[in-house]
Amino acid sequence: MIRLERTRQGLTHKQVARKCGVSDKYLMEVEAGTRIIADDQARRILKTMGMTEHTEADFTLDDIAATVDLQSAVPQLTKATEPKKAPVKQDKPEVVAESDSSVAGSIWLDALSGVLKHVPIYNAVMKEVGHRLLPITNGKIEGAAPDKVYYFMAPDNGLRGFRVQRGDLLLVVPAQAAVDGAIMLLQTPQGRVLRKVKRVNDYQAMLQKYDEAFESEIKNFNELTFVGRCVRLEAELT
Fold first, then answer.
1. pLDDT on residue 185
2. Which tens digit of pLDDT belongs to each residue from 25-50?
C-alpha cells in the first residue's frame, strides 16, 4: 500500500523518507518485503503522504491478495522481464494510453513480489507440472530459502496408510539428514521416492511404506541420500 500510494503520487523514496522521518533504505526494504513494519508505522507513513482511506486496514496478506488476481497475473512477471524491441521510427509519435488497471496491476505485482513466491510442482521425474503461490515470511517459506522450496507430487499410494495418496502434493524443504518421524524425499537409483523415516540409532534409519500392508526396511545412513523433508500436504477432496 505504501508503494502503491507513493507511485500514484509520483514520489521518490527519498522524498517520502524525508517527509516521514525515515531513511530511504528503510522505505525500500519495506516496499520490497524484506523489512517488517509495524501497522501503526505503516499507517503513519500513509497518512503523512496524504492517504486518508483504508489507513486502518490490518494489512494482512489475505487483504492484499484479495485486491488482485494473482494466479492470472503471474505470467505478467515473466513478460515484464522480456527484452523490449527497438522502437520503429515514425514520422509522428504514436501515443498509446495505458489503462489504469494495467498500471495498478504492475504496481501490485512489483509490490507483492517480495511477499509471495511462485513455488513449482514437480512430478516423480522432477518435471514441473504446475505451481502454487505461497507467502514469504521474514524472507523464508517454512523456514527455508524460497528458491529451495517446491512441491512434490506423490507418484503412488505407497504412503496411503499415512494419509498420502497418489496425486497429493507435499511441500518439500531441504534436508540432508534423517528427521525422526517425518515423511522425507529420498534420491534412489530408481528416482525420487517418499518414505516415512524412523531413526533406529545413530547410524541407521527405518524406511516405512504403508499401502495395502505396512512394510519397512532398515538402512545405514551412508546408503541413503535424503533430499528434503515434507512439511505440508495438499490433497484434493473427492
1. 96
2. 998 988 888 888 888 888 888 888 88
Domain 2-78+101-112 fold is 434 Repressor (Amino-terminal Domain) (1.10.260)
Please determine whether the domains at 2-78+101-112 and 118-234 fall in the same fold group of CATH.
no
Q: Please name every residue paired with 229 in a beta bridge, in sequence order, or none if there are none.
A: 173, 184
Residue spans of the domains in the chain: they are 2-78+101-112, 118-234
User: All 3 cell numbers of residue 58?
Assistant: 490490518
Q: Tell me the three state secondary structure of residue 156.
A: coil
Is residue 73 within a helix (H) or strand (E), and if so which, with residue range?
helix 70-81
Report the alpha-carbon angle 236-145-209, nearest 5.
45
Stated pTM of the model:
0.57
- Angle at which helix 24-32 crosses helix 2-9, to 10 degrees, equals 120
- Are the C-beta atoms of residues 4 and 64 closer than 8 Å to each other? no
End-to-end Cα, the chain, rounded Å? 39
Q: Which residue has the cell 513478460?
A: 79
> Cell 541420500 sits at which residue?
225
Residue 232 grid coordinates: 505440508
pLDDT band at 57 (very low <50, low <70, confident <90, very high): very low
- Among residues 17, 12, 59, the alpha carbon closest in space to that of 37 is found at 59
List pLDDT tens digits, range 103-159: 455 555 555 666 888 899 999 999 999 999 998 888 899 999 999 999 999 999 999
What is the fold, at CATH topology level, of the domain defined by 118-234?
Answer: Umud Fragment, subunit A (2.10.109)
Residue for grid cell 504412503: 159
Q: What does DSSP say about strands 204-210 and 214-220: parallel, antiparallel, or unpaired? A: antiparallel
pLDDT exceeds cutoff 60 at 67: no
